[in-house]
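@channel sequence for tomorrow's demo:
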Amino acid sequence: MDHEVTLEEVAARPTAVVPAVTTWSEFPALWPVLSGEVWACLRAAGIDRGCRNVMLYRDDPASGGVGVEIGVELTRPCPLTGRVVASSLPAGRVARTRHHGPYAGLGDAHRAVLRWCAAHGLEPSGTRWEVYGPHSDDPAQVWTDVQYIIRGSS
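C-alpha cells (generated this afternoon):
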C-alpha cells in the first residue's frame, strides 16, 4: 500500500492515558490492559464513545525500552482515576500519513514516514503516535493516522 506523507503543524490535543515504560516484545500484551483501564475510567464518568484511541511512543534510551502513553483523545473533561492521567499529544511540526486497512499493516505506514523524512532531509524525533479512527468490523473502513514529531520543532 502506498502511503502519502505530508508535513503539517499540529496543535496539542488533550488525552487521558496510562503511561508505562515497556519493551516491544511486552507491548502487545500490555496495551489492551492499559486501554481497558482508560475506558473503565471514562465509562465510570459516563463517557462510552466519541473519544479516539491513541498510542504515543517515546524512545527511552536510558532503559533500552520505549515510553508509551495508551489512552484516548479527550473530547470533554472528566474525572480521572487510578493510573489514568491527563496528558496531551504534542504540538509541533509532524510528518503524517493515514493508513487504511488492518492494523497489521501499520508497520508499513511507520516505515513510509521514516523513508519520506530521510528523502526530504528531515530528522524525526523519538516521539510518534497513532490515532485510531472509529472501530469497524470491515477492515476496508479502518484507518489510523501515524505522526512523527520532526526534530527541532517541539
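heads up for whoever presents: Strands lie at 6-10, 13-22, 53-60, 65-73, 85-89, 92-100, 124-132, 143-150.
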